[in-house]
């Protein structure tokens, strides 16, 4: 019962803050030595009708060691996500190659989609994560689907509780 009250209090405080016009809360990045994790909902920096995403909850986990067999580099990130487009639950996982791991940031890439190369940037100092999608210049995709993908798009990872609170209050 105590945990439930705490959760309700957190939602209430977040809801109150959102009604005052505060910006969405970014997802918190957890850093523990050679391990990094973040959970949230991807949101475009500049939302419009063309970059509207299918609602999904994502979890990103990066390990500094052990990725050779999966992506060819020692460091690796795993992205897992769940969504329910059209009411049907869908879950996916994706391994990302870490191209840089320093004291201040972890940079991971995924170029497996037909149209895009995705770069995830984990800011270890500010404890945030962003994603940059860049359209592959010569890719057409099935039925020229790549023509409908923006050249560049930046996303931030919003805190999951904050996202759903804002959604329930119709603040998005």
Could you explain how this protein is built, in words?
The protein is α+β, with helices and mostly antiparallel strands and 172 residues long. It has one domain (24-168). It contains three helices and nine strands; from the N terminus they run H-E-E-E-H-E-E-E-E-E-E-H. Strands 2-3-4-5-6-7-8-9 form an eight-stranded antiparallel barrel. Helix 1 packs across helix 3. Mean pLDDT is 84; it is low at 1-19.
Uncertain ranges: 1-19
Mean pLDDT equals: 84
Proportion of β residues? 35-45%
H and E string: HEEEHEEEEEEH
| Rg measurement, Å | 17 Å
Given the helix and strand composition, which structural class is it?
A: alpha+beta
Q: Termini distance?
A: 31 Å
Instruction: Give the overall shape.
Output: globular
Sheet with most strands: strand arrangement: 2-3-4-5-6-7-8-9
- The domain tally reads 1
């Amino acid at each position: 019962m105590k945990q439930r009250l705490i959760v309700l209090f957190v939602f209430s405080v977040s809801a109150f803050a959102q009604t005052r016009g505060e910006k969405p809360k970014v997802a918190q990045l957890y850093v523990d030595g050679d391990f990094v994790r973040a959970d949230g909902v991807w949101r475009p920096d500049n939302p419009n009708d063309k970059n509207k995403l299918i609602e999904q909850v994502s979890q990103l986990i990066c390990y500094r060691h052990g990725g050779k067999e999966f992506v060819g580099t020692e460091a690796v990130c795993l992205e897992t996500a769940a969504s329910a487009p059209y009411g049907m639950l869908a879950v996916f996982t994706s391994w990302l190659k870490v191209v840089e791991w320093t004291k201040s940031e972890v940079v991971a890439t995924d170029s497996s989609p037909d149209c895009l190369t995705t770069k995830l940037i984990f800011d270890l100092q500010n404890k945030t994560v962003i994603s940059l999608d860049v359209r592959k210049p010569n890719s057409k995709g099935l039925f020229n689907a790549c023509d409908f993908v923006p050249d560049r798009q930046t996303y931030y990872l919003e805190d999951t509780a904050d996202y759903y609170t804002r959604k329930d209050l119709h603040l998005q």
